[in-house]
Amino acid sequence: MAVTEEPRAQAKRPPAPAKLIDPKRYTSPEFARLEFERLWSRTWQLACLDADVPNPGDFYEYVVGDWSIVIVRALDGTLKAYHNVCGHRGRRIKTGCGNTNQLQCPYHLWTWDLDGRLADVPERQTYCEFADEDAALQPVLVDQWQHWVFVNMDPGAGPLMDFLGELPEMLAPYRFDRQYKWSSRSTRVRGNWKAMADAFNEAYHARAIHPESITFINYTDYEVRLLGDHSMMIIPFGMPDTESVPTVPDYQEMMEAMAWSFAAFGEDTALVDFLKMCHLEPGQQLRDLMVPLMRGGMAQSNIDVTELDDSQLVDDWHFHFFPNVIINNFSFGYWLFRFLPDVEDPNYSTVDMWYFHRVPDTLETLPPSEPHGVIPEGETCGAVMDQDLGNVPVQQAGMRSPAAPGARLSSLEVRIAHMHDVIDRYLTGD
Ligand code: FES
Ligand SMILES: [Fe+2]
Fold this sequence. Notes:
The chain has helices at 7-12, 24-27, 29-40, 160-164, 167-171, 193-200, 206-209, 251-264, 270-276, 286-300, 310-314, 383-399, 414-428, and strands spanning 45-49, 58-64, 67-73, 79-83, 97-99, 103-104, 111-112, 118-120, 141-145, 148-152, 179-189, 223-227, 230-235, 316-321, 325-329, 333-341, 349-358, 373-375.
């Protein structure tokens, strides 16, 4: 039987896609190879933060597939990026991050300055003559938005800001310039990078995978917008999930669940402690209590949120930066997830979890980022993340079955279809 969505929800979301998504896109080595050749080689991608390379001589290695890019803070303070490949016999020149006054390959000590110019070749007289320019490091496009540093391996790529489209303006009121990374971790997951992105690009799974939070987050009646190559959804907080919570939830139980969910991301539960002392009048929603409490709390902490409307203050304004970055974006900070494809096996990816907090306006200098930690595969990344990270490998296993029918998507999942459409545009060269 055909089901028609009620008009309000229809207006909130693009229509459900008719076509199925082929599971081989998640499992086939050939498809992964095409993605490396035609997508990762040509798209802007988040490489690091400016806080990873604050001082002249700082470098940071970003690896995606077989590419290694070294991002360098030059002596004049500008950002540079190069293919991290030695002009002698191809060794990677730098590994990880650090500070240096020159880029020197450890194999035979060929050396470049921070501007990528060849500075020294030991025993140069033993080579056939060649021009320094022909052995310069190969530059990679690098640009910055807020604290995010992006690279693009395609020298002919358009400007980063054109690529980001409406996102910078939509995110401007959140003051990313006033946010710092307080937690930085990564782990390997048995799931294709797109299966991970999909799991964050819809909230429809939450009633099954995150049942603790359905009393105070509306996972069904949410708005979706497609924004160029990117997309977003607005997940309403402070109200129950309209479809799966039939009765008014017990207030204190709801508070316990809310505290548990915040703590699962290492977040402060002070708001919940305040809310616990309140009660709901008949007909009142939790968000009616949250708005004044959050505005008051932020003002007390010297954080100006007057540019945020009530929805931006309370709800999760959730963005997908094509291809592989998701942010759960809140008034107090954001949780960033970056999904990196595995170079050997499409059934694996790595997820980076970077969590940010907005700092008081009175604080002049942002605190330094937390050092990065790697969590062994299968070990805990926080209770809510564990729910997603436990689910995706089982989906990945299911998609490998010859009987896997293809993903059938609702309007709640339309961002997934959009991501695949954009990937296809890259793969076909349109
Ligand atoms: S491979 Fe780098 S100096 Fe020889
Ligand atoms: Fe989830």
